[in-house]
Amino acid sequence: MKSMVIERAGGTEVLKVREMPDLEPRYGEMIVDVAYAGVGLVDILIRKGGFTELFPFPVIPGLEVSGYVRSIGDGVEGFRIGQPVASMKLLELGGYATQARVTPQLTVPLDSLGGDLDMAEAAASIVNLTTAYFAVKQVNRMRQGDTVLVHAAAGGLGSFLGQIAKRFGAGKVLGTVGSPDKIKLAASLGYDELLLRSDFVNEVKRIAGVQGVDAVFDPVGGETRARSLELLRPLGQIVALGNASGGELAHQSNEIWLGNQSIAGFNLGAYAMYDPVAVGQAAREALQLLASREVRSEVHGIYPMEDASEAHRLLESGQTTGKLVLQMG
């Protein structure tokens, strides 16, 4: 099989295609012939050496794949050879390869969704859509009519958060983006209005009024998260979904206590270690929404596996909307 291997931390030049032995399933696992793999910010952070304590070099990046079941290990039930699937490789990575080892609990049979879901869409969507679904439904427990703010609204995760918030009854959904050219995407991604992140506090106050917003979904972190506290109404909640800014600010517990506010964190990979069955069920329900076209995916571009470095460069530029995908075949 072919794999895209990172042997040391560095720029896009460290992404190297290598021939490796074919995979054999262990007990409780399956091997998938990968058709597509999603490209995400986590892959870039791994390439730069950000998670070496969890994923030491050499490492094959990639959190999400779609493809066809190649072989099935002992102890696995409910799948068949050749079945189209999408899977989350949250616990061991390895998606940038022509074969991948997957966990049944985190794998969704695409032919069971009752709709026609494209393989590239499935790989592009499964992690971010499941994260959005879980964050809105289980973490925030959104109420009918809530006013919601989403940061990085046109990104891979944000492009689903607005739609899922609307799906679960949000009354008004606002989002922030980093550049003016992304504002035109507002309606197609479920947003009532998209705002530039450089002046989001004043703009949200203008739209939401003095009462503020009920929830903020934030993959950006740093100063953006700190300033979002100004916008939360009493009993409002910030759901921390990442730290793309790289900034880390301490929040004063007294400020949160006296403001009757809360900050909740959600990381899909960490939760999958705790309850993979719940994460897999959420993935199936979320992909069912996509298959039935109740939500839509935004695939920015599809690149051959050998052009992974170009996909990384484009994602790092901040000029993408939605998700980038590698084609493995």
Automatic annotation (TrEMBL):
InterPro entries: ADH-like_C, ADH-like_N, ER, GroES-like_sf, NAD(P)-bd_dom_sf, Quin_OxRdtase/zeta-crystal_CS, Zn-ADH-like_protein. PANTHER family: QUINONE OXIDOREDUCTASE-LIKE PROTEIN 2, SHORT-CHAIN DEHYDROGENASE/REDUCTASE. It comes from Paenibacillus cineris. The lineage of its organism: Bacteria, Bacillati, Bacillota, Bacilli, Bacillales. Residues 10-326 form the Enoyl reductase (ER) domain. It comes from the Bacteria. This is NADPH:quinone reductase. Pfam families: ADH_N, ADH_zinc_N. SMART domains: PKS_ER.
